[in-house]
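FAQ: What does the model actually see?

It sees only this:
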Amino acid sequence: MTQFYEQWLDNDYNPFVLFDLNGKIVMINQEAQYLLSQVFAKELFDMASAYANVTFGFKTTLFDFRFGESLYYGITVGYMDDTHIGIKLYKTPVKRFTSLNENGEFINIYSLLDLCISAASVSRKIIFKKDFDPTFPELKLQIEKFTQLVSKIFDSYRNAASITTKLAVKTGEYLKFNDKRYPMFLLSIEGDKRDVTRERIIEQLAQGMNCTVCFKPGETTVSSPMICA
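And it is asked to produce this:
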């Protein structure tokens, strides 16, 4: 039975790490191994120490945060003595694709985003910044719908002092559909003073497209599979 519990923990969707008193990793599951390819173990140990119960036992704290490329909505920290402390992070669920629309036109996504930025900057005193991965191939997109989606996200930050647009491939993440594997890309739009009343229309635009949208106080992200052929 002990082996069963260990295998269950190792295959858990949520990262788990057990540390010793000095912050050295004693046990780690597969999801945490992936997470630690993006963040330092000390960050997790410091978080465990900060959110631990004042006495022996377990404590769950719910709050939204990002580590590496994933969003989380809470943690559980536990320790039974002074020698070990464990932390489990709870990943925020994302919408799963039940279908994949391969219709669309091939386009240079850099040019498309530049067009959206140019349109959003008209008559606005907003500083637009870009941080683009330079290795993107031409992608097949529903151009009109994707442009509307990005434009509505920019509009939700219309009162921001500056907007930063980031484009990157989601390392190690794929969408498997009909025996094909599609790499995922992430479009991140960051700024202050986001108008949350625009969320509904942004989500409606994303429906029917190959996109999932996630909202945070200072950031809106769009994830989508890369259809390159």
